[in-house]
């Protein structure tokens, strides 16, 4: 059963590791890699990557990418979103903290940010990419059986 708008946005806003996919443009299958991200309902999806990474080069060429997030235990739920990149900005300390806080405890966030090399004046060669959701696919394959709250 497809998720309604609120359900899919809330699920995407949850803490999941996403699969990012971007067209290669060379006759090969899309590049697909796991990635951390952050999203607030109604907003843009943001990811951090190296400015000189294969992901960044391919996303720059394609102008868009897609993300898939899923829950693989009953009930199985997924949300897939794709859209254009509307911003590619040098990563800030605030970006690093926002992203890492979704996945790590406070000590882990501090270690992650300090180890990234990102400072108030240097993005350490990282980019924050913002995707504007354009197309959505979603489903709860629990066939009407929702996970208890």
UniProtKB/TrEMBL annotation:
Transmembrane segments: none annotated. InterPro entries: F420H2_bilvrd_red/Heme_oxyg, Split_barrel_FMN-bd. The keyword Cytoplasm does not apply. Keywords: Oxidoreductase. Gene3D superfamilies: Electron Transport, Fmn-binding Protein, Chain A. GO terms for cellular component: cytosol. GO terms for molecular function: coenzyme F420 binding; oxidoreductase activity, acting on the CH-CH group of donors. PANTHER family: HEME OXYGENASE HI_0854-RELATED (PTHR35176:SF6). This is Pyridoxamine 5'-phosphate oxidase. It comes from Streptomyces gougerotii.
């Amino acid at each position: 059963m497809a998720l309604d708008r609120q359900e899919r946005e809330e699920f995407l806003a949850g803490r999941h590791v996403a699969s990012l996919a971007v067209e290669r443009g060379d006759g090969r299958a899309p590049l697909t890699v796991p990635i951390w991200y952050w999203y607030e309902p109604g907003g843009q999806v943001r990811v951090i990557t190296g400015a000189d990474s294969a992901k960044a080069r391919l996303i720059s060429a394609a102008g868009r990418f897609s993300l898939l997030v899923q829950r693989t235990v009953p009930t199985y739920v997924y949300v897939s979103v794709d859209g254009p990149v509307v911003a590619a900005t040098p990563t800030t300390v605030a970006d690093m903290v926002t992203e890492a806080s979704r996945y790590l405890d406070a000590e882990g966030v501090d270690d992650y940010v300090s180890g990234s090399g990102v400072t108030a004046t240097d993005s350490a060669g990282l980019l924050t990419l913002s995707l504007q959701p354009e197309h959505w696919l979603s489903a709860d394959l629990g066939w009407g059986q929702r996970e208890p709250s």
